[in-house]
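Is pyridoxal-5'-phosphate placement plausible here? Inputs below.
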Amino acid sequence: MWYNQLHEELEELKRRNLYRSMVTVDGPQGPEVVINGRKVILMCSNNYLGLANHPRILEAARRAMELYGYGAVASRLVSGNMRVHEEFEKIAAIFKKVEAALLFGSGYMANVGVISALCNSAEDLVVSDKLNHASIIDGLMLSKASFATFRHNDVEHLERILKKKRARRKLVVVDGVFSMDGDIAPLRDIVEVARKYDAMVMVDDAHATGVIGDTGRGSCEYWDLWGEVDIQMCTLGKALGGYGAFVCANDVVIDYLVNKCRPFIYTTALPVPVVAAATESINMLMEDPEPVRRLRANVERFVDGLKNIGLDVKDNSTAIVPVIVGDEGKCLALSKRLFELGVYVAAIRPPTVPKGTARLRVTLMATHASEHIERAIEAFAKAASEIL
Ligand SMILES: *Cc1c(COP(=O)(O)O)cnc(C)c1O
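Reply from A.M.:
I modeled the complex. Tokens:
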């Protein structure tokens, strides 16, 4: 019976410590949140710059709703293309120094849509880093192209693949900042190799936008590759504090997506307050990138603290600090103990990360006070000494 099958599969996940469930967060997102009635320091949110609950963002959303209402209630190509959407795309293109930007419902939809639109024939080839985000993998699976995977950040391996395989169109796609490891793709070398073989380059800047580069503009700023990356995908759901995504490219690529990209065409445009809030978040970052520097200082302080207590963590210029545990059960136990000690970090397990690399993926925010960071380090010291 189907019901028993589903139930048994869930039981099997539980036996293997791979079962997932949601916790309920009360109140707004901040450096501290209330979970199960307890106030804890939040150390696994992507609210890197603290914008999710910023008064200016809330005000922008309210003001836009008063002027334009709530929903867009049609796709962009029918009657859902409102003034707020176009204004956002103008600002986003200036922020990223590109010809054009295009809004999407989410980063997941953008990745799935862009990859499957640009590579839509068996004669096309998509080449993807082994550790790319699940939404990129799903894009590969949905596209009709053939695909190949290169070893994580291994540009020589990438080059061997590009050299060997013939294709009508080639697309190289990488996370600018890898979501579960927090390391940075060697984009300068990737662009150079891709150009040699006439391949397009797409970078997923989900964890790079608002985080890397002097003013938080992401991979192109970090690597000084302005104008050299064909496609950038940036979510609004992480450092920018809201929901949705945008793709940056030249006019031809954007025009092609408007005409061919199914998750752009066949879905309702984002609601007004979401888009107005996103515009405000980018304006704020362009006016004052100070939170980017504060975030970086917090990451440094936290990494130093973990090293001092003997944990093996890497220096990182991103907001993500993975503490690799390995065993899934131990990882869950460590997360649980940290929660008792007042710090919430979710355990990340396969298939989100490779087998044997279960981890606590700690993320810092610009709005963590030094006292939050000190308390978190103390909690890590205690929990790690008991469990690891
Ligand atoms: C979160 C994430 C996405 C998906 O973005 P959403 O806007 O949350 O759908 C895509 N790529 C990477 C690398 C991510 O971390």
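Short version: DSSP finds 15 helices and 14 strands in the chain.
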